[in-house]
């Protein structure tokens, strides 16, 4: 949920950095989200996959205008949605934050993974396959924004090594069934496209 808690902090971090961000499970309760991730693990393309695909395609489109490299990140079940989207290309830099239900590659020049801390984060991480050799984030719990802050230097270096540039037009991408709050709409211009809500962040320099 981009309007409260860890989701709101993740949204703010992404906008501060000039990155797109998607919330594939916004509008779903915990049980629905768990079943959605499980379906993706079985190879099903669902609404969460489609929201992740919309983000990835937008990043690629914006990257083509900057001439930089592309970086796609997934937090929690967003990692599963990212991988099940079918939109990722092999030369894309990938960042995983407390991933759940995903196939985790080894850390490399184009792949970087961090976990959080605590029981909930441990349970989520246990749903992954592949590499488990990645650093935790003491005190963060299951909070992607906290992990970004905790490992900001490593993430910035990773982005620089892959020539990642800020998106010219940072967006938040959500399923159509999510109810947007007045506070959210004050910061974003939103429109429907391809079964998702595309919300363009209003930069501070536009408000001066």
Approximately how much beta-strand content do the residues carry?
15-25%
Order of helices and strands: HEHHEHEEEHEHHEHEEH
User: What's the total count of β strands?
Assistant: 9
Structure class: alpha/beta
Cα separation of the termini: 28 Å
Adjacency order of strands in the biggest sheet: 1-7-9-8
Q: Tell me, what's the shape?
A: globular
Low-confidence stretches: none
| Estimated helix fraction | 40-55%
Please tell me the overall pLDDT.
89
Rg estimate, integer Å? 16 Å
Count helical runs.
9
Report the major sheet.
4 strands, mixed
What is this structure's SSE topology?
Blueprint: H1 5-17, E1 21-22, H2 30-41, H3 47-66, E2 71-75, H4 78-84, E3 93-97, E4 103-104, E5 111-114, H5 118-125, E6 129-130, H6 144-150, H7 152-161, E7 171-175, H8 182-187, E8 188-193, E9 196-201, H9 204-207
Parallel strand pairs: 1-7, 2-3, 3-5, 4-6
Antiparallel strand pairs: 7-9, 8-9
Helix pairs in contact: 1-6, 3-4
């Amino acid at each position: 949920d981009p309007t409260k808690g860890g989701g709101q902090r993740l949204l703010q971090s992404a906008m501060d950095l000039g990155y797109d961000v998607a919330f594939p499970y916004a509008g779903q309760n915990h049980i629905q989200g768990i079943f959605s991730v499980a379906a993706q693990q079985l190879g099903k393309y669902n609404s969460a996959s489609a929201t992740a695909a919309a983000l990835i395609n937008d990043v690629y489109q914006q990257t083509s205008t900057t001439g930089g490299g592309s970086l796609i990140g997934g937090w929690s079940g967003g990692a599963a949605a990212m991988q099940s989207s079918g939109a990722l290309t092999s030369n894309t830099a990938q960042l995983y934050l407390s991933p759940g239900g995903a196939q985790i590659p080894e850390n490399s020049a184009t792949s970087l993974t961090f976990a959080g801390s605590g029981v909930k984060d441990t349970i989520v991480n246990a749903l992954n396959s592949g590499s488990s050799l990645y650093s935790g984030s003491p005190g963060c719990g299951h909070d992607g924004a906290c992990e970004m802050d905790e490992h900001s230097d490593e993430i910035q270096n990773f982005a620089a090594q892959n020539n990642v540039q800020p998106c010219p037009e940072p967006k938040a991408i959500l399923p159509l069934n999510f109810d947007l709050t007045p506070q959210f709409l004050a910061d974003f211009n939103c429109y429907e496209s391809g079964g998702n809500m595309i919300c363009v962040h209003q930069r501070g320099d536009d408000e001066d």
